[in-house]
Request: fold
Amino acid sequence: MSAEDPNPAATPTPCQDTQGDGRWMSLHNRFVSDSKDKEPDVLFVGDSLIQLMHQFGIWRQLFSPLHALNFGVGGDATQHVLWRLTNGELDNISPKVVVLWVGTNNHGHTPEQICSGIMAIVQVIKNKLPHARTLILGLLPRGKSPNPLRERNAKVNKLVQEAVSSLPHASFLNVDPGFVHSSGAISHQDMYDYLHLTPQGYQAVCEPLHAHLKSMLEKPAEN
Amino acid sequence: MSGDEVNPAAVAQPVEDVHGDGRWLSQHTRFVQECKDAEPDVLFVGDSMIQLMQQYEVWRDLFSPLHALNFGIGGDTTCNVLWRLQNGELDNIRPKVVVLWVGTNNHEHSAEQVAGGILTIAELLTSRLPKAKVVVLGLLPRGERPNPLREKNAAVNSFLRSWLPRLNHAQFLDTGYRNLSKPLSDLLLQILEDTPEERRASLI
Reply:
């Protein structure tokens, strides 16, 4: 992989308002404003899988008690999250943990590019929040049956896991409870459109995540 | 709506699998299968506004008890819904009411075209299901602040308000932003009570 070619997955890029209602920028501005007002111990950042967590009972049940903020935006790829975090969403807050879940929307990018995009985000978080630890969640499988995106996501997970193994400020957590059945199929009871999680799907993902977060928060931060 | 030009919002079109995991077709296939197995009294069809209803308690509380099926797919335009209904999602079922909520994703089309697409779907429904009532929901405003899409959606609603009464058995329900579920469920209950109970063939 050439070092000269810029990686689109690692180049901060805002989302273009192609539809005409400016919703992406509205969400970003609200998050920047939240950063000024609030003092989260845990910050959740990513795409719709993070964003929609906030819409279900699971959020109030498991994560509100941890003083968590949710900066998820549906459709975001790594380059969008990178732009948001570089442009105000990390200002004025000092969470102990940043939970990062992004990469499944990086269409057209290779697993290597996506991994680099994720690692670029980890670096931005380290620069802006030197005392925070980043917990990167593994990308889930998607699609009703086996398909190239499942392979791509699995490859990203493998690369990210290797990349963080030597970093004291970041770690990887696989949150797939086994959504793919022995038949190779994913059930619509877990992912109603074979990508987004149902409340049942979120329960299966969030309970272990919550337990892991609690143990991270109980340990004193290194450095 | 007259004219010799074809309304692009009324042309049936499946969603192309550009990402590579075939999810749109998987959902459509599941709905076609549900038509073989289920006997819904109410069918909900549309985009994510319909689809996501099923993920919240409001579905279990208000709509499941009416024996409802949910055929919503996020991102769908009128073209996509039209294609799905023409390709199996109305086969083998005889719902008494169809709730239709689509149009906010028709970014390439004008308000008039979008309303025409919705009307075309309503006409398809009344022709395929002559005994059913069709309830068309008004498009909600969107965006944090006033913007062209709010004006467009309001214009769509305006067209629908005047065109739908010309169709037998179709009505328009625009409750606005805050207050949809209860008026909708009340309307559905009213329609279902007005419909004579049909004897069903034995369930085997």
Notes: Helices of chain B lie at 23-37, 48-51, 57-63, 78-86, 111-128, 148-163, 181-194. The two ends of chain B are 45 Å apart (CA to CA). Chain B has seven helices and five strands. The longest strand of chain B covers residues 42-46.
